[in-house]
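My current task is to audit a protein record that another person submitted. Alongside the sequence sits a line of tokens, each denoting a local backbone shape. Please read both lines and tell me whether the tokens look consistent with the sequence. Do not assume that whoever made the record got everything right. Thanks in advance; the entry in question is below.
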Amino acid sequence: MSGLVTDPHGRERGIALAAAVFALVALAALVAGLWFAALQEYRVGANVVGDRRAFDAAEAGLEAALAGWHAGAMNRLGVNDSSAFSGSLSGGGARYAGVVQRLGPWLFLLRSTGSDATGSRRTLAVAARLAPLRLGVEAALVASGPVRIGAGALVDALAADTGGSCAGAVRTAAGVVLGNASDLVISECPAGGCLRGDPAWTVDPALRNASVPLLGAAGWASLLAAADTIRPGGVLTPASPVWFAPGDFSLPAGAPAVPVVLLVQGSLVVESGAQLAGLVVVRGKLIVRGAGGSVRGTVLAGGADFSAFAGARAALVSSHCSVEKALEAAALARPLRERSWTALY
């Protein structure tokens, strides 16, 4: 009889139980295999996600370090000196920590290690170089509006430069660059006694009605990104290479120890005895009110008035060296254009 097994004693036995047990074992093995495969896929996926989060965190660290570059601190690092940075991504679970190391006068190496809550870690590095703004003009004063120069004042673009490798150098520079020839008014001043340059003055039509002479919006924004804000009554210090006055500002007596960049949203008043070296950018008017004040470098302004004072001479003296030093100190770091980025591990 089919499907039956007959033993020697004539009893018949079925195989259904054995077949069912075998099927259950096979099914359990299949389920276990599928579960193991799914678990492995989950682990691989979690590792990939964690690795990607760690990579993104490391990359965000590099971008944050470059975007938040503080020229006052970073540009004063000595060769081989370093500065640490850290932070986290929004949403939590991923963090970064890194270091900025100075390799040379212009070159920096940034390393950032990102980590995820799963334990994944990635380290990236980027080489960056300081990129100082270049003015592209040699002048003591560049103005998009009226300039008045009176007795006792001096705008001089022919004086010998001072400081470091620039000492004694005389560069060909214009005394005043204007948008319109009619904007320059010189009164009560002997010929050549108040304005010196080669030429003494010249016209650049591009300056007419310019909100920020020569710099343009991009140049202004670049310097503003590196600036510390100074409030009315504040004093410029060497703690920052770039200062920004959000309104009108009066420059008090005294001077920073090093050339700086001063950005003024309103008008700038130079008080008696005030001393400043570097680049001065004034969206309003430069007013020299106090006797004996001086600026050594270049002034870009919406206008200038050197006639509202009496007494000791006030001077604006062109200094290419002071401007270069100020702009180099204020420079932001930018990744090298070629082979600047690499994944370390």
